[in-house]
Amino acid sequence: MEYTFTVANFEEEVLNSPLPVLVDFYADWCNPCKMMAPTVAKLAEAYEGKVKVGKINVDENMTIAQKYRVASIPNFVIFRDGQPVANFVGAMSEADFREKLEQVIL
Asked: Domain span at residue 14?
């Protein structure tokens, strides 16, 4: 399952989550973001119950993007216990993405 994060639910869904959370910072106009969307959806399914996976639109939630210094998108931030513990930017292969994710969550 893939979540949609916003200013309204970010604290509850991300910062207070008992699971690690992968946040995909994206924008509708961003082509690399569109390229990564199927990979993010696939990983959300593969890691169901282990990692909460969701997207946040930077144009609609600028304050959160600024707080976590998101300057380029797609930008993926992994949160654990309310803190960002990893950050990777740009389009990548599913294998590379999975490897980066597993280094942090396992």
From this structure: 2-105
Phi, psi angle pair for 46, to nearest 5°: -65, -35
- Whether residue 57 contacts residue 27, with contact meaning beta carbons closer than 8 Å, is answered with yes
- pLDDT tens per residue across span 29-82: 999 999 999 999 999 999 999 999 999 999 999 999 999 999 999 999 999 999
Q: Are 40 and 53 in contact (CB under 8 A)?
A: yes
Residues with active-site annotation:
30, 33
Q: Reduced to 3 states, what is the DSSP secondary structure of residue 91?
A: coil
CATH of the domain at 92: 3.40.30.10
